[in-house]
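Example 3.2
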Amino acid sequence: MSKGNSKRGVTRRPSKNSSGDLEFVQLLTPQGEPIKHPDYSVNFTDEEYRALYRDMVIVRRLDAESLSLQRQGELALWASLLGQEAAQVGSARALREKDMVFPTYREHGVLWCRGLDPILPLKLFRCVNQGSWDPESHRFHMYTIVIGAHALHAVGYAMGVTKDGKVGSDDGEAVIVYFGDGASSQGDVAEAMSWAAVFNAPVVFFCQNNQYAISEPVERQARIPIYQRARGFGFPGIRVDGNDVLASYAVTRAALDAARHGQGPTLIEAYTYRMGAHTSSDDPTRYRVDAEVEAWKAKDPISRMRAFLTQQQIAGPDFFEAIDEEADKHAIELRERVLAMPDPEPVSMFDHVYPGGSPLLDDERAELVRYLESFESEGVR
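Structure, written as tokens:
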């Protein structure tokens, strides 16, 4: 992606967000109007603007298909990113090839932008493998189900980057770790921030504040805005409109550049909204009202970018139709590949647990093998 100041039309510069009460970095209004900000900007080509829209549309379509597969019994669970596409795509496109990503279990948009096969997390949620892939191949760590634990992994990795002398210049490396507002209440995240601050680790903490930790609203988790917690650890914190893909890109790019130049960690709070359920096991109608959901739908990140592209005459109906068709093709292919997945052998659950094996694990494996063979001896299949 390009850098520099925006060349697109500037209309106004509000001091508060569209709800009128929370200050954050915003470069596009919910109506798709560009805004000038004194510290953050983008300078994309028309093709790059269109590419951001394409990313978000495809990611949303793949997410919807995955949820449908779960509802039809083809996946055990699915954690939807509906409504968070701009935060994920914008921040992911700000990464450089050498930067390292530590996701939770909802970063399907980041995974897409890093060039990983979108089938990979579905193998985890279909329970055909342990959700493993080579983190180094695309600089993208495996999904983490344990809430907040990966923040410590990210900081440890970032400390290693410093020890290897890979910070302090424009060619330096940076690390980003994604988590939600619920995970921000975990002790692991607080400990990670403490270590990152003390060791000046080149890490960006990217909190997607989607307003709910499952059913717990964010105001019951924190007495101050999440981004302000960084002040207590001694490094910068900033809140960005997480439904604005341009602002998400600009803020993340600046934080990553600061990290790679040896300026230490940054906490980004991407203020967004989970328009769907926490996971496919959740019923959000039990803890939030329809009016709230409808209000956030008016700030939809994809609709916002589409309005911008239309108003700026960067894209027209033919482009949008073509992207929708491409997204459908990706979704159909994903479905076909999921349904074609072979069931794993039961004993494969013991693979990759310990790199050097374990006597106890070997005994358990042998016991399972004997149990399965007992059915064969009795003629049961």
